Amino acid sequence: MKQDWKPGTMIYPLPAVMISCGSTPDEYNILTASWVGTICTNPPMCYVSVRPERYSYPILTRNMEFVINLTTEKLAYATDWCGVNSGKDYSKFEEMKLTPGKASLVKAPIIEESPLCIECRVKEVLALGSHDMFVAEVVNVQADTAFIDPNTGAFDMKRAGLLVYTHGKYYGLGDLIGTFGWSVRKKK
Ligand SMILES: Cc1cc2nc3c(=O)[nH]c(=O)nc-3n(C[C@H](O)[C@H](O)[C@H](O)COP(=O)(O)O)c2cc1C
Predict the structure, then answer these.
(1) How high does pLDDT run on average in the chain?
(2) Nearest-CA residue for atom 1 of ligand 1
(3) Ligand 1 centroid, distance to 79 Cα (angstroms)
């Protein structure tokens, strides 16, 4: 049996990423976001939805660039902290001992401690209601070589220990259940 619920945002699990923004060290800030995702494969595009009242909001609209830093179990504390404290009160990089690094193509810093940093350029900002959606093109990805298999060149997501967010709770990745297409693959 199912129960009707009032309309709400119930798509889970989601990532909880750290969005780094700003073009100079005094402007650098980090906003934790879960309203984030992929919207196109080619060209590679993604979005992040941000409330206009966030301290990060004018930094994003001024620069129209940001970095999506994937987070890990190790970064869970910093991820949560950056999501409940504001850059108007703290330098989040300093408080969380995170290292701003140089992105290859955008001015926003990468977070060195993140295993995968996705450099984005904003194409469009859609005012939706509580949140504005920043539709962005991915212009570069920086991957930590520590997680790249030297034989296959593949990035080991499992070993990176990526963080999962479901309705207010953080988890690590669970056991491997299958790989893309395994449900229809012929058994040898
Ligand atoms: C797990 C998590 C997910 C969040 N997702 C979003 C989001 O998608 N969009 C948003 O505007 N705020 C989101 N927040 C809230 C902001 O990260 C929070 O308001 C933060 O303090 C804003 O920082 P700022 O004032 O320095 O910009 C999230 C917070 C947490 C803890």
Answers:
(1) 96
(2) 16
(3) 10
